[in-house]
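[agent] plan:
  1. take the single chain provided in the ticket
  2. run structure prediction with default settings
  3. attach C-alpha cells to the ticket
  4. add a short note for the reviewer (M.T.)
[agent] executing step 1
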Amino acid sequence: MARVTGAAVSPAARTGFGRRAQYVLFVVPALVVILAVIVFPWVFTLWMSLHDWHVASTQQFVGLENYLGLWRDARFLNAIWRTFYFTALAVILPVIFGAVAAMVFHREFFGRGFLRGVFILPMMATPVAIALVWTMMFHPQQGILNFLIEMVGLPPSLWVFAQDTVIPSLVLVEVWQWTPLVMLIVLGGLAALPTDPYESALIDGANALQMFRYITLPLVMPFIMVAVVLRTIDALKAFDTIFVITQGGPGTASETINIFLYLQAFAFYNIGYASAVVVIFFGIIVLLSLLTLYVRQRTLWS
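[agent] step 2 finished; step 3 output follows
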C-alpha cells in the first residue's frame, strides 16, 4: 500500500485549510474585544469583591466577608426593597397606560398621526435634561405641579422632598417618559393581529368588550410581555434621573441599589464592597430577566 505523504495532499484540501485559517483571522478580533470588554471586567470585579480594598490603600483578601457584610447592612437591604418597589411601579404603570394609549391610537380619528408624534416626544429627550425639568416642576413653592393640583382643590405636595412621596414622584417621571415606548410596541402588535377571529366573533354576536377580553388581549399579550421585559431591565438599572433629582434623598428614601453602589464606589471609595454589590445586583438582574422571559414565552401564540 502506498504511503500518503505531504505532497499527496490535494489542492482542494489545502484550499480548505486556508479558508479555515482566514475564518479564524476574522473571529480573533471579535474574541479579543469580548475578552477585553466583557470577560475581563467581570473577572476583575469578582476578584475585587473578594478583597478589602479602599482607594489609595493596599488590598487585603477577605474572601466572602464583603458579601456577608452586605446581608448585615440594613442600608443595602433597604436599597434592594426600594429598587423592587420602584421597578414594580415603573413597569406596571407605563405598561397599563401604554396599552390603553395604543388602543386609542389604533382607531381612526382626525389628527391621529400628529397626536402620535406629540405623544412619543418624551422618550426622545435625554434623561438628565428630563430630570432637570422635573426637578423644577417638583419644587414645593415654585413648581407648576403644586400650582395645578391647587387649582382643582387638592392640597400641595412635597413630591421628591418627602420620604413618603419621593419614590412615587420618581415613578411619575418614568411613566411620563416611557409610556410612549410601551404604546409603540403594543400598537405594532395591534397592527399585526389577524382579522378572521373578529369576523367570526361578529357573526356569533360578540360585543366589543367580549372581543377585547377573549380575542384582542390574548393575541396582543406577547407584545405586552416584550414591553414588560424591556421596562423591567431599564427600571432596574435606572440611575441618571434618580441621581439628578434626589441623589438618593431625602436621607436615603430614594437610595436604590444603583445609588448605593455609586456612593460606595465614588463617594466612600470602598472598591471591594462596591464590587460585591455589583455581583449581587447582576445576579438579581439575571434572575428577574429569566423570570420575565419565561413568562413571555408562556404567552406566545400557540
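[agent] step 4 note for reviewer: The longest strand covers residues 51-52.
[agent] ticket updated
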